[in-house]
Design a protein that fits this description.
It is a single chain. The protein is mainly alpha-helical. Among the domains are: 78 residues, no CATH class; 173 residues, no CATH class. Strands 1-2 form a two-stranded antiparallel sheet. β3 and β4 form a beta hairpin. α12 packs parallel to α14. The longest helix is centred in the N-terminal third of the chain and has 25 residues. The structure holds heme C (5 copies) and calcium ion (3 copies). The site of one calcium ion (CA) has 8 residues, from α12.
Length: 379
C-alpha cells in the first residue's frame, strides 16, 4: 500500500467514524443526571413526609397505616401491594409504616416494572404502559359511583336511607377521571352513555407524556424549550395560570352567556348543581345543605340562608339526611372537586356527570334548568 492510498484510507475511516459518532449521539438521548432526578423528586409531593397523606395515622396506637389505606399512603405499603417484599401480589397483607413516602424503590423495582394493569374501585381492570401503572394504582380513587347503588338499593329515589353517610370518590383520582366511562369512576346514570378515556392529542395522551415522574410537573415543550408544553396547540397558554382558560369547542356548557375555559364551565355547572341540591333538600327533606372544604364536607345549613357559616361547618353538624337521588348528586359534586385537574384529565366526562345530576334533581324539584349542554359521548 503506498503512502497516498494509505492516507486516503485513513481519511475514509476517519470520516466513517466521525459520521458514526455523530449518528449515535443524535440517536441516544442523554441520560438525565441523577442529581437532577433527586432534586426534582425531593421537591415533589411524593417526598413530602409532613403531608397529611403520610402522617394521618401518626397518632394511632400503634402508629400504622391500616392495610385498606396502605397501598397509597405508605411507600412501604405499596411495596407490599405489588409483592416486592415477597408477600402476595395485588394485596396489602400487613399494616404499613407511617411517614413512608413514595421513594425511588416504590416505582423502581422488578415487580413495579412489570406492573401493567390497574384494578379500579368499580372493578374494571385497565392496561397501562410500563411505569404508568403505578401512577394508576395510587391515583384511582377509593370508591366508584356504583357504591351509591350498592348502599341505597331497596329505597325509593326520594326515600331517606337510614344511617346513610356521604359516599365520596376520595382524592386525586386522576386516572379514574382520565379513563372516564371506561372505569366508571363517577356516578353514571342508567340509560346514559359516558365519554371514555380522554384521547386529547398526540404527545399528551398518557400520564408520563405530560408529567415528569420525578418532579410531577409538566414536561418541557418538545418543540420550544422556552414555551409551555400546552402552547404547542393551545396558543393562549404562556404559563400554568392560563390552563384554566383553555377551551376548544366553544360551547357555553353552563349557559351563563359566555364561552369560558373548561375549568370555569365546570365550576359554573357545579354551582348550579349546588343550588339544585339546596332546593331539593329544602323542598323534599326540609333541611338545608352546604359544602365546605373540611371533612366530611357536607354540612347542615341550619338557618337555610344558602351559605355555611363557621359555626355551621363543624363536624357535629355533618349533613346526614340522604336519599338515593341526593347520594348520586353529592357523589358527582365531590368528584368534580377533589380531583383538581379534572378539567385537564377529562373535562367533558366531568361535565356529563354534573349535567346528569342536575337533570336528575330537576325531575324531583320540578324545575328544569334551561340552556345547559351535555357533551356528546362519541367524540
Ligand atoms: C404509592 C402511591 C403513589 C404512586 C405510585 C404515585 N403517586 Fe402520585 N401521589 C400519591 C400521594 C399520596 C400524593 C399526595 C402527596 C402529598 O399530599 O404530599 C400524590 C401526589 C401526586 C401529584 C400532586 C403533585 C404534588 O407534587 O403533590 C401528582 C401530579 C402525582 N402524584 C402524579 C403521579 C404520577 C404521574 C405517578 C406515576 C409516575 C404517581 N403520582 C405515582 C401517591 C402515589
Ligand atoms: C387508591 C389509593 C388510595 C387509597 C387506597 C386510600 N387513599 Fe387516601 N388519598 C389518596 C391520595 C392520592 C391522596 C392525596 C390527596 C392529596 O393530593 O393531598 C389521599 C388523601 C387522603 C387524605 C388527606 C386528605 C386531605 O384533605 O389532604 C386522607 C385523610 C386520606 N387520604 C385517608 C385515607 C384513608 C383513611 C384510607 C383507607 C380507608 C385511604 N385514604 C385510602 C389515595 C388513596
Ligand atoms: C412515582 C414513581 C417514580 C418515583 C418515585 C421515582 N421514579 Fe424514577 N422514573 C419513573 C419512571 C416512570 C421513569 C421512566 C421515565 C420516562 O420514561 O421518561 C423513571 C426514570 C428514571 C431514570 C431514568 C431517567 C432517564 O434518563 O430517562 C432514573 C435514573 C430514575 N428514574 C431514578 C430515580 C430515582 C433516583 C428516584 C428517587 C429519587 C426515582 N427515580 C423516583 C418513576 C419514578
Ligand atoms: C394533558 C396532560 C396531562 C395528562 C395526560 C395527565 N395529567 Fe395529571 N395533571 C395535568 C395538569 C396540567 C395538572 C395540574 C392542573 C391544576 O392543578 O390545575 C395535573 C394534575 C395531576 C394531579 C394532581 C391532582 C390533584 O387533585 O391534586 C395528579 C395526581 C395527576 N395529575 C396524575 C395524573 C395521572 C395518574 C395521569 C395518567 C392517568 C395524568 N395525571 C395524566 C396534566 C396531565
Ligand atoms: C398536540 C396538541 C395539544 C397539546 C400539546 C395540548 N392539547 Fe389540550 N387539547 C388539544 C385538542 C385537539 C383538544 C380537543 C380534544 C377533544 O375535545 O377531544 C384539547 C382539549 C383540551 C382541554 C379541554 C377543552 C375543551 O373545551 O374541551 C383542556 C382543558 C386542555 N386541552 C388542556 C391542555 C393542557 C393543560 C395542556 C398542556 C399540559 C394541553 N392541553 C396540551 C390539543 C392539545
Ligand atoms: Ca402483598
Ligand atoms: Ca359558560
Ligand atoms: Ca347558613
Amino acid at each position: 500500500m503506498n503512502k497516498r492510498v494509505f492516507i486516503g484510507f485513513l481519511v475514509v475511516v476517519f470520516a466513517l467514524l466521525a459520521g458514526w459518532i455523530f449518528y449515535i449521539s443524535s440517536q441516544t438521548r442523554q441520560p438525565i443526571p441523577m442529581q437532577k432526578i433527586s432534586v426534582d423528586w425531593w421537591g415533589s409531593g411524593h417526598a413530602d413526609v409532613k403531608s397529611e397523606s403520610f402522617t394521618h395515622w401518626n397518632e394511632e396506637d400503634p402508629p400504622q397505616v391500616p392495610p385498606t389505606c396502605g397501598k397509597c399512603h405508605s411507600g412501604n405499603g405499596f411495596i407490599d401491594y405489588i409483592g416486592q417484599d415477597g408477600s402476595a401480589a395485588m394485596s396489602v397483607d400487613q399494616p404499613a409504616a407511617v411517614e413512608s413516602v413514595v421513594t425511588c424503590t416504590v416505582c423502581h423495582s422488578e415487580k413495579a416494572d412489570t406492573l401493567t394493569s390497574v384494578k379500579f374501585p368499580s372493578g374494571s381492570e385497565v392496561n397501562f404502559n410500563q411505569g404508568e401503572a403505578s401512577c394508576g394504582a395510587c391515583h384511582s380513587g377509593l370508591d366508584a359511583g356504583s357504591k351509591v347503588d350498592a348502599s341505597a338499593s331497596g329505597y325509593g329515589d326520594d326515600d331517606l336511607v337510614p344511617d346513610a353517610s356521604f359516599i365520596t370518590p376520595h382524592y386525586s383520582f386522576s386516572a379514574a377521571t382520565w379513563l372516564g366511562g371506561e372505569t366508571h369512576g363517577g356516578y353514571e346514570y342508567a340509560g346514559k352513555t359516558y365519554i371514555g378515556r380522554f384521547e386529547h392529542a398526540e404527545g399528551v395522551q398518557t400520564c408520563m407524556q405530560c408529567h415528569d415522574p420525578h418532579s410531577l410537573q409538566m414536561r418541557e415543550n418538545p418543540v420550544d424549550k422556552n414555551a409551555e408544553l400546552c402552547a404547542v396547540c393551545h396558543s393562549n397558554v404562556t404559563g400554568f395560570a392560563d390552563y384554566r382558560n383553555i377551551y376548544v369547542d366553544g360551547i357555553d356548557y353552563d349557559a351563563d352567556g359566555s364561552v369560558e375555559g373548561m375549568y370555569h364551565e365546570i365550576e359554573g355547572l357545579r354551582n348550579i348543581l349546588m343550588q339544585s341540591m339546596q332546593q331539593y333538600t329544602k323542598d323534599k327533606l326540609g333541611v338545608g345543605i352546604g359544602w365546605a372544604d373540611s371533612f366530611p364536607y357536607l354540612f347542615i345549613d341550619t338557618n337555610q340562608d344558602g351559605t355555611l357559616s363557621q359555626e355551621e361547618a363543624v363536624f357535629p353538624n355533618a349533613y346526614k339526611a340522604f336519599t338515593p337521588r341526593l347520594m348520586r348528586a353529592t357523589f358527582n359534586y365531590q368528584f368534580s372537586i377533589k380531583e383538581l385537574a379534572g378539567y385537564v384529565h377529562n373535562g367533558k366526562y366531568v361535565v356529563q356527570l354534573l349535567y346528569d345530576s342536575i337533570t336528575d334533581l330537576s325531575t324531583a324539584i320540578g324545575k328544569p334548568v334551561a340552556g345547559l349542554t351535555r357533551p356528546a359521548s362519541d367524540d
